[in-house]
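Q: Given only this backbone (178 positions), what sequence would you predict?
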């Protein structure tokens, strides 16, 4: 059995990283580490974030959640997870959090064009990167999928929001919401 000590969960704001990360951390007996903690409450200097994350994870392990994909210094995780949410749902989640119109637009566009997923692929490659849809699933179901992905039991799910929304006749509706 593989012992998981360092877990990285990435995704656009609003996809559920913190909720899922909290459950995954609890199930693995690890602590949850959010990007804000690693950044020290300042604008994220990703070199400093990488160093802090690497030190924390090497010392005691943990589940890191971040909207900015990065590589913790001195660690090469076997797998990293990118959570994905349907952009129409994401609009509602971000609005409910009080995001202004421009922030909603920026984050939904990032999800729509796979920004976090593509950046994660650039850093870790397709063998280490697993994307998981959160839409239509409970937080517990997503946490179960994350754990299975970390053990290598599932592959990356296909996500192409533009094609899906066009096929369902919803792309124009999404654009009108932005």
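A: Predicted residues:
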């Amino acid at each position: 059995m593989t012992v998981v000590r360092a877990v990285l969960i990435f995704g656009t704001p609003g996809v559920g990283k913190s909720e899922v990360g909290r459950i995954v951390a609890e199930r693995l007996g690890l602590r949850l580490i959010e990007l804000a903690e690693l950044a020290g409450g300042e604008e994220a200097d990703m070199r400093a974030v990488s160093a802090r994350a690497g030190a924390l994870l090497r010392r005691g392990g943990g589940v890191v959640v971040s909207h900015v994909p990065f590589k913790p210094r001195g660690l090469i995780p076997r797998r990293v997870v990118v959570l994905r949410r349907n952009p129409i749902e994401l609009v509602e989640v971000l609005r409910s959090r009080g995001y202004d119109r421009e922030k909603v637009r920026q984050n939904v566009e990032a999800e729509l064009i796979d920004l976090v997923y593509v950046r994660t692929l650039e850093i870790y490659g397709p063998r280490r990167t697993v994307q998981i849809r959160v839409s239509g699933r409970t937080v517990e179901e997503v946490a179960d999928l994350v754990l299975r992905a970390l053990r290598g039991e599932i592959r990356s799910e296909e996500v192409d929001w533009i094609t899906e929304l066009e096929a369902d006749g919803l792309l124009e509706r999404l654009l009108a919401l932005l």
